[in-house]
UniProtKB/TrEMBL annotation:
<keyword id="KW-0472">Membrane</keyword>
<dbReference type="Pfam" id="PF00753">
    <property type="entry name" value="Lactamase_B"/>
</dbReference>
<dbReference type="InterPro" id="IPR052159">
    <property type="entry name" value="Competence_DNA_uptake"/>
</dbReference>
<protein>
    <submittedName>
        <fullName>MBL fold metallo-hydrolase</fullName>
    </submittedName>
</protein>
<dbReference type="InterPro" id="IPR001279">
    <property type="entry name" value="Metallo-B-lactamas"/>
</dbReference>
<keyword id="KW-1133">Transmembrane helix</keyword>
<dbReference type="InterPro" id="IPR035681">
    <property type="entry name" value="ComA-like_MBL"/>
</dbReference>
<feature type="domain" description="Metallo-beta-lactamase">
    <location>
        <begin position="50"/>
        <end position="244"/>
    </location>
</feature>
<keyword id="KW-0812">Transmembrane</keyword>
<feature type="transmembrane region" description="Helical">
    <location>
        <begin position="6"/>
        <end position="27"/>
    </location>
</feature>
Length: 293
């Protein structure tokens, strides 16, 4: 190939790549800029590996449910800051296992916190003690999660705690705080790591468990998501938060089969990474990529 022809070809290739990159950047910036947080509810199921963490934004308020593992705390802080989070109006630590509160001390130190909610359950671990120390350093008290407690997320929105329904459990997972959030006609159920005992209690109390979006309990473990419970929820979309090739075999194939029988779309953080859903109160759609990575 003659030298001039080769140079011309190289310039054309560079120009094409430049246009593609610029278009992609512009497209992503446009989505982020045009995202109306005042008239939509945005839910981020943040990839924290083998753990749980969800950010809910609605009516210019921010609710964080859990904070993932200690290993993911810096990644989580970057994600929140890149999404312009400076204050978390509410934090809910569903239960004190390390894969749910591993990053909590760092979150408390790095952001302004409104109210901090958790069940009355203790765990003698470093991450739990660090969380308590961080709360004390900011003179924040834990508000005890209990059924029928409401969090104020603004107009057209309800956020109600449905569990824990007992004061003591043999299994720490069953202390998990379950939250039902409704934004206009869109409904979401967040279940922490509740297992079948806590699921049975929710059903026995005749709570309205129906929800379009379900955060599947305990990373898709077989110990949760009974057929009866899933039938009550009847989700259209389910989210499973778990790590790639995790040691627990999450999500369990039997649970995936149960969700499939419900004709439910399943998104998994081990496959899709961070998952972002946006609702205008009627329609819920998945963004093709997180607002920022």
């Amino acid at each position: 190939m003659p030298k001039k022809t080769w140079l011309r070809y190289a310039l054309i290739c560079v120009s094409i790549i430049f246009v593609i990159v610029c278009t992609t950047i512009t497209y992503r910036s446009t989505i982020k800029t045009n995202l109306d947080l005042e008239n939509n509810m945005v839910t981020h199921f943040i990839d924290v590996g083998q753990g749980d963490c969800t950010l809910i934004q609605v009516n210019n308020k921010n609710l964080l449910i859990d904070s993932g593992t200690s290993d993911s705390k810096q990644k989580l802080i970057r994600y929140l800051k890149k999404n312009n989070i400076t204050k978390l109006d509410y934090i809910v630590a569903t239960h004190p296992h390390a894969d749910h509160i591993g990053g909590m001390a760092s979150i408390i130190k790095n952001f302004e916190i409104g109210e901090f909610w958790a069940p009355k359950a203790l765990e003698s671990t470093g991450v739990f003690n660090d969380m308590i120390d961080a709360l004390r350093a900011k003179n924040l008290k834990i508000k005890i999660a209990s059924p029928n407690t409401s969090l104020n997320l603004g107009p057209n929105t309800t956020c109600i705690m449905l569990s824990p329904n007992k004061t003591t459990y043999d299994n720490l997972n069953n202390y998990s705080c379950t939250l039902k959030i409704s934004y206009k006609n869109s409904t979401y159920l967040f279940t922490g790591d509740i297992e079948t005992q806590a699921e049975d209690e929710l059903m026995a109390n005749n709570y309205d468990l129906s929800a379009q979006i379900l955060k599947v309990a305990h990373h898709g473990s077989k110990s949760s998501s009974s057929e009866g419970f899933l039938d009550k929820v009847s989700p259209k979309i389910s989210i499973i938060s778990c790590g790639i090739d995790n040691d627990y075999g999450h999500p369990n194939k039997e649970i995936l089969d149960r969700l499939k029988k419900l004709n439910c779309i399943v998104y998994r953080t081990d496959l899709a990474k961070t998952i972002v859903l946006i609702s205008d109160g009627t329609k819920i759609k998945k963004l093709s990529f997180p607002l920022v990575r």
